[in-house]
Amino acid sequence: MMLRAIFFLLAGFAIVAVAWLLATIPGHIVASIGAFTIETSTPVAILMLFALLVVILIVLRVARGVLGMPRAGAGWRRRHRLALGERTVTRVLVALAAGEQGTARKEAQRARHLLGDSPQTLLLVAEAGRLGGREDEAEEAFRALTKQKDAEFLGLRGLLRQAVDRHDWPEALVIAKQAEAAHPGTVWLRQQRAELALQTENWAEALELAGADPRRTTYYVAAADAEPDPPRALSYAKQAWKQDPAFPPAAIAYASRLRAAGQERRAQACIVDAWKRAPHPDLGAFALALEPDKLARVQSAKRLVAANPTHPESRLLLARAALDAGLTGEARHQVEIADGEGMRQRRFCLLLAQIEEQERGDTESGRLAQRDALRRAATAEPDPHWQCTSCHREHAVWHPKCDTCGSVGTVQWLNSARTSGLPVIAG
Question: Which of 163, 197, 219, 373 could form a disulfide with 202 if both were Cys (CB 3.0 to 4.6 A apart)?
Fold first, then answer.
């Protein structure tokens, strides 16, 4: 308060001093304008000039305000439109969070009308369209996003997601490449490209993009089967075998290419090692495929199962090879041991029926024994089989990708468990 009083006091002194100085200025000023003559003292003339200057400034200020009214009105309308648009965007977000399809689409279109084709409004229009099942609206908004430099990746991501949802893999590949060029090195995009490589069965690219994936063994086997160059196919197969030497398709993929390269001994060693880890019928079929003599096949089967002779698959392989060679006694011996160890699968019962038929022939005892074995087969446990763990479709042979549901790496060897009744994944 004291400072304000001092300020006014000083200002009063200054005004008085200036007025006194003006009053002491001597002289007269005479001005003639047409027939009018104005004569006054110098101090009065200075005051009149000052007053005229003030009037001119006031007039200019008023004129500026009048001329600027349209622009000011436009600015006010723009600010009002922006505030209304921001409130509409908030309502869109709330509707999307609540799952209100109709409200979200309506408010999103209103926000676009108020704010224009900004990245935010286009993205909201696209998401509202997807929520309401209007993929055409979403696609139009995503394509509009791709035309904006800073938001191009957002539009491409939305278009890629739509292409994947409708399983349009060629279109998805094109969009993925465009997205990679717009924003390289994105982790999400790398994952999407890896999934596209799997869906299009580009196994080599899937291996490059997948990273640490538990299905890499499957990728290597599939890449070996798809690779036309024998050395590269051998390399893929070897990697599959190294990844999981107990996985029968991996061992067979590697051994088959070793066999094609003339390295039969290494191929057989690979199969023997796999049989030691996890016996499988496909391993036995591969090991005995090149042996034309039936008695020699029995010896080859014995060498194969030597490292794991008590496994049920070893018993069945020896019994089947012996039966094919006419050694029914040896075949019955293996079957009886498997029976004593709890073997109750359908293939075991059918093999027993074949042994009875071949050993006893068309006799009364033979027919009774066969009938008994076939009855057991009718109620026996199901045989092990390849099955997709995703859609439960059974497959006659292993595939890297289920042709029913499209899942990759889900075709597994399932063996029924007598004790629990639940499937056991082997390999």
Answer: 197
Q: Which domains does the chain have, with CATH numbers?
A: 95-209 (1.25.40.10), 214-382 (1.25.40.10), 383-427 (no CATH)
Is residue 395 within 8 A of residue 387, CB to CB? The reply is yes
Phi and psi for 122 in degrees, rounded to 5?
A: -65, -40
Contact between residue 283 and residue 274 where contact means Cβ atoms under 8 Å apart: yes
On whether the CB atoms of residues 387 and 416 are closer than 8 A, the answer is no
What does the pLDDT look like over 388-422, one tens digit per residue? 999 999 999 999 999 888 889 899 998 754 333 33
**What residues are paired with 415 via a beta bridge?**
424
pTM: 0.68
pLDDT band at 247 (very low <50, low <70, confident <90, very high): very high
Q: What percent of the chain has pLDDT over 70?
A: 90
Q: What is the pLDDT of residues 143-159, one digit of tens each?
A: 999 998 888 998 999 99
Average pLDDT over residues 85-90: 86
